[in-house]
Amino acid sequence: MYSGSIVAIVTPMSEAGEVDFTAWDRLLDWHVQQGTDGIVVCGTTGESPTVSLAEAVELSRRAVARVGGRIPVIAGSGSNDTAASIERTRALVEAGADAVLVVTPYYNKPTQDGLFQHFTAIADDSSVPVILYNVPSRTGVDLLPETVERLSAHPRIVSLKEATGSLARLAELRARCGADLEILSGDDPTAADAMLAGAVGVISVTANVAPRLMHELCEAALGGDETAARAIDARLAELHRALFIESNPIPAKWAVEQLGLIGPGIRLPLTPLSASCHSPVREAMRAAGVSCA
Fold first, then answer.
1. Catalytic residue set
2. 8 A C-beta contact, residue 104 and residue 78
3. What is the spatial distance between Cα 252 and Cα 68, in angstroms, rounded to a whole number?
């Protein structure tokens, strides 16, 4: 249902930390022009922990209006509070989101049955497709394949963003869920391998900086052209690494600023990219053929 290069888009902000809606429109236009296949609004890379619900609704509403149905808009609606996630999902669906991305509840560390009930409650209430999001390195909880298999029977749970980077996990998920659930990579460095092994795309940080190449990578991998996919991925390998030289989205926002698309704003507790990291990120952009403004 949702495939290809789906950007986990950064949220443009002024130096004072206000959302920059003019830059938002510019960024959305650029992604459509560059071939991006979908947009995730207010995911982790969009600073979801510090973006208010009102801001998320406005970002989603503007994204839906701006891309005009040309590519899907997926809104991040998950939290570690099931009732709040349901409320957030309703608001973002009202804003026009085509689907919602729901992360595993962080910090409170629910059991697998708690995870099953959490996602089921959100999907039961949602009127749009739900994409599960498993990123144990950030949340401290792992949505296990057997729980995903149970959830895949729900008619509105259509995909899983799997960010463990494990191809063995991908193989188990595909064996358990089959056609009931599509898998999206949530890990840029292993996304090419994941797509060649059956994932249908990637929700990408790298696509913020090199959207055309990420689209071409997905196109090649999903078309079965392993040689082309690996050649493109080799060009992007240094960038995949550099965009995590500090916590995401710190390097990605700095890199997009260097492209002249957004300003320098970022919200505490995140801070601007350390000066010592500027050169490695710039070199990685150059290696990928990305020119700074």
1. 133, 161
2. yes
3. 26
Specify the length of the chain in residues: 293
Q: Please give the CATH topology (third level) of the domain spanning 4-225.
A: TIM Barrel (3.20.20)
Domain coordinates of the chain in residue numbers? Answer: 4-225
| pTM, entire model | 0.97
Which of 152, 113, 149 lies closest to 129, judged by CA?
152
Question: CB under 8 Å, gap of 24 or more: what pairs does 21-28 form?
Answer: 21/58, 21/62, 23/261, 23/262, 23/263, 24/59, 24/62, 24/63, 25/62, 25/66, 26/261, 27/256, 27/261, 27/262, 28/62, 28/63, 28/66, 28/67
Residue 157 to residue 3: CA distance in whole angstroms: 15
In DSSP notation, 92-142 reads: HHHTT-SEEEEEPPPSS---HHHHHHHHHHHHHH-SS-EEEEE-HHHHS--
Segment 203-257, tens digit of pLDDT = 999 999 999 999 999 999 999 999 999 999 999 999 999 999 999 999 999 999 9
CB atoms within 10 A of CB 32: 15
**Which parts of 183-225 fold into alpha helices (H)?**
188-196, 211-222
> Are 217 and 233 spatial neighbours (Cβ–Cβ below 8 Å)?
yes
DSSP string covering 146-180: HHHHHHTTSTTEEEEEE-S--HHHHHHHHHHHGGG
Sign of torsion, CA 49 50 51 54? positive
Q: Hey, CA dihedral for 92, 97, 98, 102, is it positive or negative?
A: negative
CA atoms in the 13 A half-sphere facing the CB of 10: 32
Low-confidence ranges of the chain (pLDDT < 70): none
Phi and psi for 23 in degrees, rounded to 5?
-65, -35
Residue 40 to residues 46, 115, 229: CA-CA distances in angstroms?
Answer: 8, 22, 23
pLDDT of residue 68: 81
